[in-house]
Every structure is written in structure tokens, then in C-alpha cells.
Amino acid sequence: QKEVEQNSGPLSVPEGAIASLNCTYSDRGSQSFFWYRQYSGKSPELIMFIYSNGDKEDGRFTAQLNKASQYVSLLIRDSQPSDSATYLCAVNRNGQNFVFGPGTRLSVLP
Amino acid sequence: DGGITQSPKYLFRKEGQNVTLSCEQNLNHDAMYWYRQDPGQGLRLIYYSQIVNDFQKGDIAEGYSVSREKKESFPLTVTSAQKNPTAFYLCASSDRPSQPQHFGDGTRLSIL
């Protein structure tokens, strides 16, 4: 089992819709969870981070964490074509470093 | 402006050659990291450092070496032992190991 798993996509949604990106992790002791957006050819940029079970909202983005199910998700409301990118889920490992999932490619269609 | 600077942006390596990628940060972060990204893949951890003069191997350290002589600098050397070095290399830093990371713009390494 891989440490962090994501559907590779592409996930296609129409403009204005809600995009839902999912991530599962294997280490039950993980405490910190991060979502990064990466445009083609560019470096990742931090979108959200979440440490506690439940929802965390920031503008159009909502991160959801369920530690019992070892599941973290990112919702993007009112999706825009500029949201088209690869979204990387990262999990802190033993408080020492990070492990990344393979990323989900999102395409928002005008 | 605070940030992470990686140089060069593009680098070409000849067979049998060692090359060094630079990473400098002025964020006063304690922790620094090096990742490798292959096309269509996620990031894989090469080395990380939580404090000056100390560093740890990541998941794919073979064929790479690092140093951390100053808090703001964490250079990565790709040695001739790394037989498939072509990739996008990303340096990151965080205030503490469990805190969000911030990335530099990356270095693209290719073989001549």
C-alpha cells in the first residue's frame, strides 16, 4: 500500500461547479495534512493545511479531514478555468518530513 | 521579499560529472528539503535537514549528497552515481518539520 494515494485524473468539471479532490493515507499516526496546487512546469504552491478532524474553509477552498477513515479532501467551490492544475496531497511523516501523493489533474471547462 | 531561491533554472550534466544545485532561503526557516519530480509524478524526498550541520536521507538518497553549513543554504550535489538524473528538482523550507513547506522555483536537470 502506498503511503499517500490520490486518483490521477484527469477530473473534469464545468466552470462554476464544485470540484472534489480526495486523498487517503496509510500512517494512522499522521497529524498534519497539506494541499498544494501545481501548474504545469511550475513549483507547488500551498493552498490549505489542516491538523484537526472536520472542515477548514478559506475562500473558495474547503479542506476536510477524517482521521478515523484516514481520508483528507479538498473542495473547490465555483471552479474557474484558472483552477486547472495538478493538486498534490502531502502528509507529514512522524513529525520529521513529508510524503506526497502522485497528484490529481483537474480540468475546469469553460 | 522573503523566499527560496534555486539556481540555476536549467542545468545540463555530462556523463561522469557531478553537478551542484543551489538552494538559498531568507525565511529564517530551520527545516529544508530536496525533492525530485519526474514527469507526471508526485514529489519524492531526497534529503532533508532540520538544523544546521545535520541532515537525513529521504526515500531516494542514493546518488545524491547534501550539506547544511549555514541555516540559509542547502545545496544538493547530483553525483555520477545517479544514473538517471533527468528530473525537476525542488527545494523547500518550513519553519519547523511539521509546518507547511514553501518551495523554490525548481531546477531542471538534463543529461547531455
List keywords for this structure.
heterodimer; A: 110 residues; mainly beta; 6-stranded mixed β-sheet; 5-stranded antiparallel β-sheet; 11 strands; 55% strand; globular; B: 112 residues; 7-stranded mixed β-sheet; 4-stranded antiparallel β-sheet
The parts of chain B where pLDDT drops under 50 for at least 5 residues are none
Number of helices of chain A: 0
- Proportion in helices of chain B: under 10%
Number of strands of chain A: 11
Strand content of chain A: over 45%
Main structural class of chain B:
mainly beta
| Relative helix content of chain A | under 10%
- The global form of chain A is globular
Low-confidence stretches of chain A: none
Strand proportion of chain B, as a percent range, falls in over 45%
Mean pLDDT of chain A, to the nearest integer, reads: 95
* Structural category of chain A: mainly beta
Question: Nearest-angstrom radius of gyration of chain A?
Answer: 13 Å
- The protein's oligomeric status is heterodimer
Describe this structure in words.
In chain A, the strands form two sheets. In chain A, strands 2, 4, 5, 9, 10 and 11 form a six-stranded mixed beta sheet that branches. Chain A has a five-stranded antiparallel beta sheet with strand order 1-3-8-7-6, with no helix packed on it. Chain A has strands spanning 4-5, 11-14, 19-25, 33-38, 45-50, 54-58, 61-66, 71-76, 85-93, 97-100, 104-109. The N and C termini of chain A lie far apart (37 Å). By secondary structure, chain A is mainly beta. Chain B has 112 residues and is mainly beta. In chain B, the strands form two sheets. In chain B, strands 2, 4, 5, 6, 9, 10 and 11 form a seven-stranded mixed beta sheet that branches.
